[in-house]
Design brief:
This protein is of the alpha/beta class and about 290 residues long. It is built from seven helices and seven strands. About 35% of the residues are buried.
Length: about 290
């Protein structure tokens, strides 16, 4: 008897934050890999657009409204997902809220709203599906955090604190679920090109970027595409039984600072191309 439950042929997945950015890209990538997917977010029209795209590509997808700050909405989403695709085997938490704030000018309500979405809502969702996963001895929970866990950014007090809490929650899940057959993976992306921050005041955005450069957390101007983060999520979900990708850090590669040198053709008399050696190689011995 195997010590690990094989992946079932059908592995339904739910993805939060699926109306845009990393969540949307992840839903499309999981569907392309054969997973029936339920997309959750507040913007229903955007969800339906993503569902239509998945179905047009031959995948199975369903949309359900989800507000992670509302416990009733989370419960309704889980119920709708189960009715649409059956028992959930994959949960991807990709929703996030990030509004500029400052430690010296705190807004407790705004701070609480960020924590409600980024941390409390995730716990509610995972807790709703986890017992069935443990009963089946199989499942994947993938939690998308942020590089702010390693590199905090100024003027993101609520976001940074909530992501630190989320990271701690995920680490605790990994320990408590060890030996149950349910895996928890953390995907920690660096700066990513998404709609998050698109509604910020341009002046505030410029100020924040300048501060991030000052503190060394924005070293270059290249951003990840959401699809790059989605690929890491899919890798965690599709890792073979007996393997767990506990923490995947996804960082944007720095652009080239200089053009690569052109290939130099071999000089005359180089024989087989080993520069500076006579034909035959090995210093002329044959």
């Amino acid at each position: 008897m195997s010590r690990f439950v094989p992946h079932p042929d059908r592995r339904p997945a739910v993805v939060t934050g699926a109306s845009s950015g990393i969540g949307r890209a992840t839903a499309l990538a999981l569907a392309a890999a054969g997973h029936p997917v339920v997309l959750g977010a507040r913007r229903g029209a955007r969800l339906e657009e993503a569902v239509d795209e998945i179905r047009a590509r031959g995948g199975e997808a369903h949309a359900a409204p989800l507000d992670l700050a509302d416990s009733g909405s989370v419960a309704a989403f889980v119920k709708a997902a189960g009715e649409a695709v059956g028992e959930i085997d994959v949960v991807v938490s990709a929703a996030g809220r990030n509004q500029p704030d400052a430690a010296e000018e705190p807004d407790p309500d705004d701070f609480a709203a960020t924590v409600a979405v980024n941390l409390l809502g995730v716990q509610r969702l995972v807790a709703s599906v986890l017992p069935d996963m443990v009963r089946r001895a199989h499942g994947d929970v993938v939690i998308v955090t942020s590089e702010v866990v390693r590199l905090p950014r100024v003027r993101t007090v609520g976001y940074t604190a909530s992501k630190w809490g989320l990271h701690g929650y995920a680490r605790t899940l990994q320990m408590e679920l060890e030996g149950t057959g349910v895996r928890t993976s953390i995907v920690q992306p660096g700066q990513t090109l998404s709609e998050m921050g698109s509604d910020w005041d341009p002046g505030v955005t410029t100020e924040l970027l300048e501060q991030w450069v000052r503190w060394g957390v924005a070293r270059h101007d290249h951003f990840l595409q959401p699809e790059a983060v989605a690929a890491a999520v899919v890798s965690a979900v599709q890792a073979p039984p007996g393997t767990q990708l506990s923490l995947v850090e996804v960082e944007p590669q720095a652009p080239l600072t200089a053009l690569p040198l052109p290939d130099t053709p071999p000089e005359a008399g180089d024989g087989d191309g080993a520069r500076g050696e006579p034909a035959g190689g090995q210093g002329g011995r044959s």
